[in-house]
Amino acid sequence: xxIRDRKFPAKxxxxxxxxxxxxxxxxxxxxxxxxxxxxxxxSGVSDEASLxxxxxxxxxxxxxxxxxxxxxxxxxxxxxxxxQVLDMICxxxxxxxxxGFRGGEVDLDLYFAMARGTQEKxxxxxxxxxxxxxxxxxxxxxxxxxxxxxxxxxxALSSKKIFNEFTEAKALGIETRPVLIGPATFLxxxxxxxxxxxxxxxxxxxxxxxxxxxxxLKRLGADWVQIDEPLLVLEISEPARRAIxxxxxxxxxxxxxxxxxxxxxxxxxxENLTLAVQLPVAAIHLDLVRAPQQLKQALAxxxxxxxxxxxxxxxxxxxxxxxxxxLRNLRETLSEHAGRQVWIAPSCSxxxxxxxxxxxxxxxxxxxxxxxxxxxxxxxxxxxxxxxxKGDRAAQNEINTNQKAxxxxxxxxxxxxxAVRERTAGVRSRDxxxxxxxxxxxxxxKRLNLPLFPTTTxxxxxxxxxxxxxxxxxxxxxxxxxxxxxxxxxxxxxxxxRQEALGLDVLVHGEFERNDMVEYFGEQLEGFAFTQHxxxxxxxxxxxxxxxxxxDVRRPRPMTVxxxxxxxxxxxxxxxxxxxxxxxxxxxxFVRNDQPRSETARQIAxxxxxxxxxxxxxxxxxxxxxxxxxxxxLPIKKSAWNDYLRWSVQAxxxxxxxxxxxxxxxxxxCYSEFNDIIAAIADMNADVISIETSRSQMExxxxxxxxxxxxxxxxGVYDIHSPRVPGPDEMRGLLxxxxxxxxxxxxxx
Length: 749
Prior knowledge:
Blueprint: E1 17-20, H1 33-42, H2 48-68, E2 74-76, H3 84-92, H4 108-116, E3 134-136, E4 143-145, E5 148-150, H5 161-171, E6 176-181, H6 183-188, E7 191-193, H7 203-220, E8 224-228, H8 238-254, E9 259-263, H9 273-278, E10 283-287, H10 294-301, E11 307-313, H11 323-334, E12 341-346, H12 365-369, H13 374-388, H14 393-411, H15 418-425, H16 437-448, H17 465-475, H18 481-502, H19 519-522, E13 526-529, E14 536-539, E15 542-544, E16 548-554, H20 561-568, E17 576-580, H21 582-587, E18 590-591, H22 597-617, E19 622-626, H23 641-656, E20 664-669, H24 678-683, E21 688-692, H25 701-706, E22 712-716, H26 728-741
Parallel strand pairs: 1-12, 2-6, 5-7, 6-8, 8-9, 9-10, 10-11, 11-12, 16-18, 17-19, 19-20, 20-21, 21-22
Antiparallel strand pairs: 3-4, 13-16, 14-15
């Protein structure tokens, strides 16, 4: 406490008033307990009570970790059994009509039916019900369930989850800040069904339900709520800005005693910053990792009473943050704002990173010293906050350790390889080109001699228990390499036999030897490292363990050729060589942040190019290079799209253009809207593209029709992310839609 003397006033404090905050914590459990509990429940092995108990244990552990890390402001309702947008759909009663919801509370069966579809006959139609669409959350690899919005749609409070979890934490002695997705983002990230209309026109129906929920949180004892409005970092219209003003003026008027932290992330607010700082909210969160420049702008525009939550610790990547540099920047920027109340926080929710680096016991010590998971990032938050205040010995020790790691990484010969950089610098335009699409099509049709509507699969067959057990036994040394290879070959042989029996035209070997479409390649490329416990959630129970790109990338030896040669030897039908593309390898890895992503992509593209060349030499007539994450890599700001599309298209062409014109290049993309990037997709110059279209009922084909896509298209008719099995008539119906809009000779099945 500062005691002011009338005669000698106390000198004004030069430090800001700082606290620590977190926006969200990984929900899967340190050992993926949630994944196992979900899959056990879905398979009927365990019951609802068991699933909910596992969820409760994870939440308790998460709150405890944050409390022990010294976090002052801890979130609740950041946990989810499947997806936080689906949770909001339930809270707001925004259940699509086909699920037959009649009001009341959304139960667990309905919750998972929306996420995964149903196989049994139910719903309004009396038939099995397809799942709701999924798409990527902004530019992350996290999938969310897309709200389905209809004109005049009504909403009603239909879930108690947010209230239950707040009171659950309170009973443990932990005061939390409940998290909601904001009304503007919820509507704008949804999808209009039926007649086209502006989703924000539903605001008058939706906003009273938000107000009702906030009033209940206040009644339960909440002082703060976190309302996520990442819509504010997009280039939005003036009507959308008016809607946002209306939302927060209404909340301020209707729930005046509840303080709101308006949360933005993944980019700068730019032209929306003035609007945001003028809203009647108590705090605003800024992502200063992606957009450090906006702090000075916010300080100039924000009223003194507005608390600024500063997202200075990277919540999207696994690297240590340069604490000394962060402190220099903050001290310089905040020096003219003595007494300003700020919170130190991660840039976004930590659901995008693994939980605890202490679990890693096999990583190279140097690479390990450069990394930080969610728990360690909270410790960085605490250290920065302590150093901005009075500081202490512990904080200084942490800063010293951090600086040693920063210096080690900058000087590492393993991270910086001159030969790789010389090769990327030597790439020329001729390395990115092939013959015309028309000429290639004639050569390929003559060589392959396929029927109309050639049939194939995207590539990977199920990783059965036998396959997983064999891989585990091989890694632990319980079986020899020869025994492991024999097991994989047996599975490949059976997969080829099945495809031939079914009458497929172009076969795949099933990828049984691959643990993951990214990890498999990363394990064989220099510049990648692999973790034991680096799991993050992609959607629902689907967890991925992204490779870590820590250094310059190159391919020391062929990665897939021997498996291809064996598979092709089993059949006279064409066998696809199967590869993951450079952008997907980039997007689905934790990428080094000490050089431009475009440079890393080019290094990966050259490594894949070597593999493509070797596959062709080994007899591959068709090579599929999957770019499932191509659209996901788009910058959030449209103004930055052209630069990304330029270097990402170049990376694909670089990896695929070493082959002869009669060799057919396929690519695959899934769960993406293509309308606004269709010209760039065409510029990738692939001979065949396959896309997931079953969830959208072929709506995604519209982009390829309006643009007159020049190559062949394989519209997916079977959604493999849902356990629901479509019938033959349903798949035929989808193809009938495709035939109406695409040339018959260009359609693959």
